[in-house]
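DUF3054 domain-containing protein
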Amino acid sequence: MSSAFGTRRFDRSSTTAGLVIGDVMVLVVLLGIGSMNHNENIIGNPGYFAGTVAPFLIGWIIASLVVGLYSSRARRSVRSSVLLADGTWVIAALIGAGLRATSFFHGESPLTFVLVMLGFGLLFMTVWRLVASVASNAL
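Predicted structure tokens:
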């Protein structure tokens, strides 16, 4: 099982590590901007902000493993990198919004919130993955 996981679903390379770090940073920045737009003090109340990030990070981890976002297949082309990251975000955002709707996390998940998260997340992730792909091809 671990060899199938290692070779099919998660490429253990420095490039993949950079993508994981970059993807998580994009999610944190996206959620930080959204939180600040709602007058939340993400620096003064980091625990609250962590509670904002957690459901989407959980969703991201689950979705990335299901989609195979960090497999070598996902980096075969710029197109596959962007499309798989965007697909992962759609699944992760829906999982995150679903988790936010429970009593385990703060916040709510009205349809407008879900649509805004989907839209801005797709924008942020697409731009990041395009930049990452161009940068890795330039090296």
